[in-house]
Write a structure and sequence with these properties.
The protein is α+β, with helices and mostly antiparallel strands and 145 residues long. It has a single domain, classed as Alpha-D-Glucose-1,6-Bisphosphate, Chain A, domain 4 (2-Layer Sandwich), CATH 3.30.530.20. A seven-stranded antiparallel sheet has the order 1-7-6-5-4-3-2, with helices on one face. Strand 3 and strand 4 form a beta hairpin.
Length: 145
């Protein structure tokens, strides 16, 4: 299942790329992320790997997720693979230069472990989460100006 959302951020594309390309910043704009630890590589970039603890579903236990950078095209695109043992999500950030502003599109291609009957509910929830996170990112980056 594919889910996509986008937002325009009043910051140059290079600034937005630098921020979203480092998963250690997720703690600042993704409220479901509890911790981030880099396990592979010294810096963000191709092949970098992380252990992320997140709480994707309220009222359910936290999950440990493997997070790996699959593709890196500064400042236009980053591809990630998330695997928490129940769900695998391929996340793509596409960044478009709008002359001092940036359109950031997040596309999630999700393979969910949830029963088929519940997948539409999960799709709607993931879409809401992405929209909230992108709004939080916009607020954070525009305040830092």
């Amino acid at each position: 299942m594919e889910i996509a959302r986008n937002i325009v951020i009043d910051r140059p594309v290079e600034d937005v790329f630098a921020f979203v390309s480092d998963p250690r910043n997720d703690l600042k704009w993704c409220p479901k992320v509890v911790s981030v630890e880099q396990l592979v590589g010294d810096e963000p970039g191709p092949g970098a790997g992380y252990a992320i603890v997140h709480k994707p579903v309220p009222g359910r236990p936290e999950r440990r997720m493997q997070y790996e950078c699959l593709a890196w095209e500064p400042p236009q695109r980053i591809d990630w693979r998330e695997d928490d043992g129940a769900d695998v999500i391929r996340v793509t950030y596409e960044l478009e230069n709008l002359g001092g502003k940036t359109r950031l599109t997040q596309r999630d291609d999700a393979e969910l472990g949830a029963p088929r009957l519940l997948r539409p509910l999960f799709k709607a929830g993931i879409g809401r989460d992405i929209a909230r996170q992108l709004s939080a990112l916009k607020d954070l980056l525009e305040k830092e100006r």
